[in-house]
Amino acid sequence: MFLRSDNIAGVDPHILAAINACNEGSAEPYGGDPLSAKLDSEFAVLFGAPVRVFPVTSGTAANSLALAAVAGPFDLIACHAAAHAFGNECGATETMSGGARFLPIAGGDGRMDVDATTSALANAQRAGASGYRPTALSVTQLTEAGTTYGIEHLRALGALAHELGLRFHMDGARFANALASLQVTPADLTWRLGVDVLSFGGTKNGTMCADAVVFFDLTAAANFERRLKRAGQALSKSRFLAAQLLRYIEGGLWLRNARHANAMALQLADALSRVAGVRVTHPVQGNIVFAELAGDIIPALAQHGIRLRVKSFREDGTGFVRFVTSFATQSVEIAAFAEHLDQRASL
Amino acid sequence: MFLRSDNIAGVDPHILAAINACNEGSAEPYGGDPLSAKLDSEFAVLFGAPVRVFPVTSGTAANSLALAAVAGPFDLIACHAAAHAFGNECGATETMSGGARFLPIAGGDGRMDVDATTSALANAQRAGASGYRPTALSVTQLTEAGTTYGIEHLRALGALAHELGLRFHMDGARFANALASLQVTPADLTWRLGVDVLSFGGTKNGTMCADAVVFFDLTAAANFERRLKRAGQALSKSRFLAAQLLRYIEGGLWLRNARHANAMALQLADALSRVAGVRVTHPVQGNIVFAELAGDIIPALAQHGIRLRVKSFREDGTGFVRFVTSFATQSVEIAAFAEHLDQRASL
Amino acid sequence: MFLRSDNIAGVDPHILAAINACNEGSAEPYGGDPLSAKLDSEFAVLFGAPVRVFPVTSGTAANSLALAAVAGPFDLIACHAAAHAFGNECGATETMSGGARFLPIAGGDGRMDVDATTSALANAQRAGASGYRPTALSVTQLTEAGTTYGIEHLRALGALAHELGLRFHMDGARFANALASLQVTPADLTWRLGVDVLSFGGTKNGTMCADAVVFFDLTAAANFERRLKRAGQALSKSRFLAAQLLRYIEGGLWLRNARHANAMALQLADALSRVAGVRVTHPVQGNIVFAELAGDIIPALAQHGIRLRVKSFREDGTGFVRFVTSFATQSVEIAAFAEHLDQRASL
Amino acid sequence: MFLRSDNIAGVDPHILAAINACNEGSAEPYGGDPLSAKLDSEFAVLFGAPVRVFPVTSGTAANSLALAAVAGPFDLIACHAAAHAFGNECGATETMSGGARFLPIAGGDGRMDVDATTSALANAQRAGASGYRPTALSVTQLTEAGTTYGIEHLRALGALAHELGLRFHMDGARFANALASLQVTPADLTWRLGVDVLSFGGTKNGTMCADAVVFFDLTAAANFERRLKRAGQALSKSRFLAAQLLRYIEGGLWLRNARHANAMALQLADALSRVAGVRVTHPVQGNIVFAELAGDIIPALAQHGIRLRVKSFREDGTGFVRFVTSFATQSVEIAAFAEHLDQRASL
Question: What is the ipTM of this complex?
C-alpha cells in the first residue's frame, strides 16, 4: 500500500509533540491565541518579507481561498491543464470565488508553456465582455508531473502575469520538495519572482491537517477572515493549527523532511529504471515518480501485496503509475520494492 | 479570560491520546483508513439507527454542508432569528448551497415559536415564484440562548417540517449538552422526532477540530463526498478526524464532559443569582449562562483580571454577558469567580 | 381586472411608434447601433451629470445587476424590510452578486428609518468577520407603500451610506411617479443626494420591456458589460431597447405619464375615503393606493366584475388591498369604480 | 456592414405587426395574459408532443436557464469546445446553475465527436468525488461552425447521454435553419432523438427579443418560474413576448425565414468559392459561411464599404471570416457582394 501518495503518512513526531505541548490551559479562540499571533512574524522571517499567513485544514481550502482572493465572480484564472485546483477539487475555487473560471493551458512535464499562456491570455482579453476577465495566473510547484518549474520559467510567467495586470498564485502543496530540489530560498522561489499569494503545503510533508495561505501582496489579504469564516475554515481552537505550522518550519524540519522524500524518490526512480518493462516518464525533481509499467508487472507486484496507484491503462495493458514518497518513506522499503521488481523481471 | 466560551479549552486528554495512538504507520487517505471506516457503524450504534457520518473541521462547515444537502440555489431554510448559521457564519450556507436563503423566525429563549414558524412558512409558500421555496427547517439544540428545546416542541417543529415537505436539520454544536440536560437518548432527540440531518458538535466539548454531519435521511447524503471536496473539507489524513470522533463517543466520554460542563453552568448561575446587580436572563439548561450585570460590576471584575464577553451594553451601562463553561472548567474556578462577585457586591 | 397593477397596461403609443420607426434596415448589435450610442448623452442631459446607462428588460434585472455592481460575494445591502429586491425577486441580487445578502430594516410607510438604519449598520460593522460586510444601502422611490421619500430623508440616508463607505442605490421602478409627486428635477432626486446607481424604471410607466441601470458613480460601472452578458441581458437587437428608453424620456413623456397616473391615484383615494368600511392606510404620493376594505365589500365588487389584488385578509374578514394606476388608467374608470363603491355602501 | 451576423436584422414585419396588434387594452402580467396562455398548446402542436414553453429575452438567457434546469452546483455539462454557452456567455450558465461546469469536447465541423464524448464522460465519471458529476450533454444545432448535426449523429449522442443518466440539451439559437436544412419535422429533430430541453431561438430569425426554453422532459421544468424570476427574465408585460413567439411559428413563418436565409448563404458560398484566394472552410448547411480570404481581399472590400467580421488572422495575413445571412438578406446584396469580389479578383 505504501508509495501510493505522500498523504498516507502520519504526522511527523516533532509536530505531534508540538500539538501535545500546546494543550495546556485555555487560550483565546479564532486566532487570538499566542501561537497564532506568531505566525505572521515567523513566516516573515522565513520568507524575508512581510507576509500575512492564514492556516487552513486542507490544500483544497488553501487553493480555493487563495484564488478567491484574486479572482471574483466573472474572472479567469490561467493554470496548467493538469492543475489540481482545476481538475481535482470539484469546483472549490469556483465556489469560494463566487464564480471564477479556470483557463487550462498546455505544457510539457506539467509546466505551463509561456508562449501558450501568452497566447491564451491574449485571446481571453480580446474576447471582451462575452468572456471572463483574466485576473490571475496559477502555477503548481512541484508540478502535477512531479517536476519543478525552474526559476527563469517562473520569472517569465510572473512577469507576464503582472504585465497583464494579473495576480500570480503558486499552489505549493509540495513547495518544500521544490525548494529542496532547487536549493534556493523561500524568497527566491516566491515574491522575488512576483508571486503574490502562495498555497503553503504542510500536510503532505508532516503536519496533521495544517496548510496555509501566505500573502506577499498584503492588499490581496483584505477581508480574508471573512473568506475563512464563510468557508468553514475559521477554526476555534486555532492554536493547534498554528502549533503545527510553527513546528513545521522550525529549525528547518520541513526542508529536512522534503529532502528525505526527494532522495527516496530518486532511489525509487533509479530502481525502476533498471527494470525491463518500466519507463520513468518525467524528470524526477521532487518526491513523485511517474512510470509506465508493462502489463504483467502490476499483477506480479500485487501478488507481493504491493498496491499501486495506476492513473490509467493503455490498450496494450501498460499501466501508467504514480509513486509518491514522503518524509516517512524508508530506504529499506524502496530497496524491498526494488527487489520485488527485480525478481519479477528475472522471471 | 476563562468562561468566555467553551472553545477556549484545549483537547480532552483522552482524545489527544487517541490522536497520538493513531499515528502509527501509514493509512489510506480520504476516508479509506480503518478508523474512518468504523464511523458509520459506531454512530449507528450510538443513534440506534442507520446513519452516514462525515467528519468536518468546524461547526460552520458542518452546518453549511448539512444545510446545502437539503437546500439548493433558490431554497429557503427556516431558522431562529438568532441561529448561528444565519447570523454568525458569514454566508457559509449560502455559499455551499449555491444560493439558499434563511428565513429568520422569532421565539422566546432562543426557540422557534411553532405558530410563528407555521405562519412564516405559509407566507413563504404563498409567495410562489417571486419568493424562495421552503425546503428546510433548522433548529439549534442547545439554542443560542443556552436553553434546550423540549421533546414536544421539537416534535411539533419536525411534524410541521415534514407536513410541508421540508427536511429537518438540527445544529447540534452543543448537542451533548442538550442530551445531558434532557436525559434522553441520542435517538430520542433526533430521528425519532423527525430530524433528517444533524450537525454533530465535538470541538466545543473536547475534540481538537472534529465535528461531523450525521444523516438519518440517507438519501440526503447523496453526493456528499463532492460537497466535502468542494468545500475543502475532504481531509487527506482522515484517520485523525475519525480517531477524535470515535474516542469522543467511546464509553460515554462526550456525555460525561457535557454533564460536567452543565453542572459548572448551574454552579455559576447559582453564584450569579445571589449577587445584587446581576440578573440571569434565560433558563440555564446547558453550559451557557446569560446575565445582565450592573454597570459597575464589569470593570470591578476586570480589576481582578476577569475578562467577560459582553454581548451588548444598555444605555444605563448594564452589560449583557454570556458565560460558557466546558468540560475543562473547574469547580474551584467558579467558586473563585463567585467570591470575586461577592466581594464586589459587599463594597 | 383593472387597477391591479401598473404593469397590466400595454405600451404607450408614442413608444410603440418609436419601436416601429427603428425597424428600418440593419444595425450593429449589442449596443453598437446609433440609438444605443445616444443613451449616455441623452440621459446625461436629463440628469444634468455624466452617466452610464445600460438597458435591461425587467426591473428585477435592473435591481440585481445594479446591486451586484456595488456588493460582492460576502457583502451586505441595507434595505427596507418590504423592498422588492429583497422580498419579491427570488434571489436575483444574491445570484448576480455571487453571494451578497440583504439586511432588512424597518420603517413606517415603506421608508427606512434613519435611526434604525444607523443602528443596524453599526451592528453589522461590529460583527466583524463572522458577519457580512456592509457595502450598499438601497432605497425604493416610490416606496413599496406607495409613498415618496422626502428629499431630507434621502439626504440623511445618503450621507449615512457614504460616511460608512457604502454605495447608495435607488430602486426607481416608479421613479417617474416620485419625481412627478415631489416636483423636483431628476438631479435633485439622485446624485445631488448621493445616489450612486439608479434602477430606472420604464416598464410600469409606458415602455414594453425597457428599464435601465443608470450609474452616477461611473467607477461602479466597470465590467458592467460582463454582468449584462452573464445575466442574459446583453440583447443583440439593442436598438429596440434604446428606442423605447429614448422616446420614454423625450419631450417629458415619462413625466406626463407619471403625473397622469398619480392624479388617477388621488382620484381613486378620494373616492375610497368617502366610502364607509374603507380606510386608506398610507399617504398617497404616487400611483399606488393601499386600503383596508370591510369584509363584505370585496365580494360585492367582484359581482360587478371588479377583481382586486388583496395582499392579505385579517381575521375579521377585512381585506388589505393594493390599487395601482398607470398612464393608461382613465378617469372614467375611476369614476365607475367609485360609483360601484357608493352603490355597495348605500345598500 | 451587412453579412456580419443575423442579429443585425430588424424585426420581421409580420412579427412587428403582431406586437402592435396585442397592444390593445390591459392584460394580466407575468404570463397571465391570453397569449402567454396559448404558448404551451401551440408549441405542443408544433412539436407533436406535450411541452412547457417559457419565453426569455435572449439566447444566453435561454441557454443558461435551460442548462441550470438540468445541472446544479457541482454538475458537469458536456458540450463542444466551441459551444456558445461555454465560450461566449461570460459564465451565464455557471451563474444560473449555482456552480455547474462545462466539459468542452472536440469534434470536426463544430460537432461533438461521439467517441471523444464517450471517453470524456467516462473519465469524468471515474474521477468520483474529486470531479464534477456529469448530468447534461448540450449540442448546438446549427453548430458554431454553421453545420448541422445529422439525425444519426444526434441519436447517438442522445442515447449516450441517457445511458449515462444525463439530460440532453439542444442550443437551438438557429434551430429553424437546421430544420430547414435537414427537412425534418421539429419532433424528428428533438424529443424523438432524446432531446429533453431546447433553447428555441427566435431573435436571429425574426423576433425582436423573444427566444424560449422548451421542455420535452416536463419534470425538468419544475420550479422554472423561480429560475426566470431570479434571472430577471420574468417579464411583466409578458403578452409582448408571447405575441412574438406565436406569430413566429404561425403559418410556417419561421421556416420560410430560415429557408430564405439558408438559400442566401448557399448563394454567398457559391460566389465565394468562385473567387481566387477564397476558401470556404466548412460545409454550408445553414445560414453561416466560414471562409479564408487572402490577405489583400479584406482591405479591398473595405474600400467598397464592406466590413467583415474577421474571426482571426493567420501569420500570412489570411483572414478567417464568418458571414451570416438572415431572413432580411436580399439576393441582390449577395450579388453585389459577389461582384465586388470578382472585381477584386480580376485586378
Answer: 0.96
